[in-house]
Amino acid sequence: MGKVALQITRRSFLKTAVAGSGGLALAARHVRRVAASALHEAGVPDAWFYRGEIKSTYSVCDMCPWRCGVIAQSVGDTVFKIDGNPADPKSRGKLCARGQGGVSFMYDPDRLRAPMLRTGERGEGKFKEVTWTEALDAAAEKLNAIAAEYGPESVAVFGHTAGDFWFADYWAQAFGTPNAAKPSSSLCTSPREEAAKFTYGFPIGGHEPVDWDGVKCLTLIGSHIGEDARNTVMQDFSNMAARGGKVIVVDPRFSTVAAKADYWLPIKPGTDTALMLAWMHVLINENLYDAGYIAEWAEGFDELKAHVAEYTPEWAAEITDLPAELIATTARVMAENAPQSVIMPGRHVTWYGNDTQRMRAEYIINALLGAVGREGGFYFAKSPYIEEYPHPPFAVAGSSGGCSAEPGQESAELPTGPSGKARADGARTTFLRGSTAMQELIEPMISGEPYPIKALIVSGVNLLQSVPMVERTLEALKQLEFVLVIDVLPMEHVAWADIVMPESTILERYEDLSTVAHKTPYISLREPAVAPYYDTRPAWWMARELGLRMGLEKFFKWETVEEYVDTRLATIGSSIEKMRASDGIIIQKPKAYFADFGATSPFHTPTGKIQLYSHELELAGFDPIPTYEPVEEPPEGFFRLLYGRHPVHTFAKTQNTPLLSELFAENEVWLNADVAKTLKIKDGATVILENQDGVMSTPVKARVTQRMRPDAVYMAHGFGHNAPGLSRAHASGASDTQLMSRYVLDPISGGAGMRVNFVRLTKGSAK
Ligand code: MGD
Ligand code: SF4
User: Fold this and answer.
1) Closest atom of ligand 1 relative to the 459 alpha carbon
2) For residue 371, what is the domain's CATH number?
3) Does the model's pTM come out above 0.70?
4) Average pLDDT over the chain, rounded to whole?
């Protein structure tokens, strides 16, 4: 009976649908209601799309920082589905698995639900729920007291995820602390940004400017497309591979993308600069470089030629553990396809502490290939034009160092607070410019040098899973006078907060516009599909409410973020209303190739030319041309700890997401099969890793494979959560961060080289 009712209803829907598009929406709505009631009567579980009017909302995925445009489909107060926004240049109507997991992230039953005040010892995780007024009043009072005694610089702000702007940029600058930082800088991209500034005069920005449509040869150095699952990059890579493009992969592991490559170079970890110096040698010695391009757009070629004269493929073969012939052949393949031939800058490039120089080597090769600014090479990414919200000058100039940028963007000097104190992370870095070194801000929390940091606001950063030297971070958390955590989930560091403020997820909140430096610069709207769940709030609201209680009202004139966004949009003749009518996206005119710059140089170096030889670096006491510096070898019986991504997870954020946890619940440690045989470790056996300082991992399964070099092991980052409130992720797999009891600081960019830890394996007890 129920089935019949359903069939009749579907038939009548189709009949109505073909009757004419004018009445279609109304008819569809009516039919859905009829169908829903028929289903209810029949006791059949009803499909979501029959439950009422479907609302489509434009927003941007926040399951990773790639920022694909989405359309969320909701009925009433429930989001049922998200799709890629076809008008969005990044998603192009598609989402990756993690993006599809966005709805599941929002419905995670483990979410933080109400503001809380600590009742037990720090780290014990004992809290009582309070009202927002109580939480905000208490936070404002404590922060004001600390600022009055030690100055606003004594408050550090760490921010990440889509809402990081509100605390780590807007609030921090209004309040007057220069000590605001994002992990996406010194734990990820800062070496590639700084290297690009020294070489090309502009940073790379959030979106790698590979001109995919025309690329004929792509070289990847420790960058594993497919496991690093950025939606558009995977689409572009597949298209390029389908066109027959050549792929060269340099990786100690036979990664997913290595399996698709024409050439796989299983390099000895830490020797990539030697390989690249030899590639330069071949390109120059065999006259394979683009001489016309170099003459017109670069300087320092003679010095470079002299520098690489001795770096033959045979020299590099000894160091890299790669055949000399393979080194020479791959250089020739790159050149044969130039200028549609690029080394794509990897994203997470903080490896060994000499990372800015390694990234400079990549950029110099791209210049020798004549690829920069050419179709099918690297385009010049441009930020979209839109004004900021008008506010009085901030107490601190310069931002927390995110990574969107464009040709011509100035490198910021180290920002200073109102009392003239520079950012505290500069103390150990000699050439830090625009990037922030988040991990360097932990030290002043303990030592008080160069000046004390007494309070910490952590907004969307998984402090104990993302920052190396976990013991040091815990020490800092013990010593701080005040810790405010803004998060969605009860991650481990939440237990260390004095006050917890639960944030709504991206599908429940407005955000500032997303502005993307891109081949087609564009702006996307981020609107809520539903009202915030539980007693959660967006970060913009928290930052404003805190600001109003701290005497910062002149910076928070706007009442709502819609007003804030609309004011910005008015500067380009648009509005939220107009954006809704244009698929949530505004695309602006590109400025992608040389021809778009007329007589001006797109390179914003001191001379307007690509710096093959950097006088700036030389003056600061660094090598003006990259040199190979050997890295420390693993001690006897130890392996280098390498780490990377899993395609259905992002950082340490998604392991508890119900849908994604179902797809991949725990990480494994990849171990070379011959080594495993010697150690008598079988595939799937439970092992424990112990690092050079005696730090032990939680039990983790061994993946015995020939796809790994014998001198290193590999694991996916973000697992081994130690927070009991994470019902799925708790104690699943092992944490790579936990095993990073040291890092090597890149003195140029402030990056924390994390591939300098070693582990040995013992058989562990099963969980
Ligand atoms: P996640 O681990 O994803 O990234 O470092 P993090 O920025 O710390 O943690 C994000 C946090 O934000 C989680 O606590 C999550 O619950 C919370 N969150 C999620 N959504 C929201 C929201 O809407 N609002 C708020 N307030 N919170 C939210 C990433 C960093 O880690 C980066 S960029 C890189 S590239 C490095 N990668 C890396 C690595 O590969 N290995 C190791 N060992 N360390 C690494 N550190 C770096
Ligand atoms: Fe979301 Fe995937 Fe796009 Fe990242 S790449 S923004 S997770 S859809």
Assistant:
1) 26
2) 3.40.228.10
3) yes
4) 91
- Taking the centre of ligand 2 as the mean of its atom positions, its distance from the CA of residue 751, in whole angstroms, is 25
Ligand 2 atom at minimal distance to the Cα of residue 100: 8
Residue 764 confidence (pLDDT): 72
Q: Per-residue pLDDT for 33 more than 50? A: no
For the chain, first and last CA: distance in Å? 50
What residues flank ligand 2, with Cβ below 6 Å?
A: 61, 63-64, 66-68, 95-96, 98-99, 230-231
Q: What is the pLDDT of residues 95-151, one digit of tens each?
A: 999 999 999 999 999 999 999 999 999 999 999 999 999 999 999 999 999 999 999
Residue 170: pLDDT band by 50, 70, 90 thresholds?
Answer: very high
Whether residue 630 lies inside any domain: the answer is no
Residue 461 Cα, ligand 1 centroid: separation in angstroms? 5
Same domain (yes/no): 652, 666:
yes
Our CA dihedral for 220, 225, 231, 235, rounded to 10 degrees, sits at 70
pLDDT score recorded for residue 44: 54
CA 332 to chain centre: 33
Contact 217, 341 (CB under 8 A): yes
For residue 14, count other CB atoms closer than 10 A to its CB: 10
Is 664 found in the same domain as 725? yes
For residue 2, give its domain range. Answer: 1-46
Residue 284: both structure tokens together = 């120059």
Report pLDDT for 432: 62
**pLDDT band for position 385 (cuts 50, 70, 90):** very high
Instruction: Match 């000399």 to its residue by tokens.
Output: 324
Using CA atoms, how far apart are residues 197 and 202, in angstroms rounded to an integer?
A: 4
pLDDT mean over 290-306: 98
Asked if residue 105 belongs to a domain, the reply is: no
For residue 14, is pLDDT > 50? no
722 Cα: distance to centroid of ligand 2 (angstroms): 26
| Mean pLDDT along residues 573-587 | 98
Integer CA distances (angstroms), 418 to 4, 175, 397, 448, in order: 74, 10, 10, 19
Find the 401 Cα to ligand 2 centroid distance in Å: 22
d(CA 462, CA 480): 17
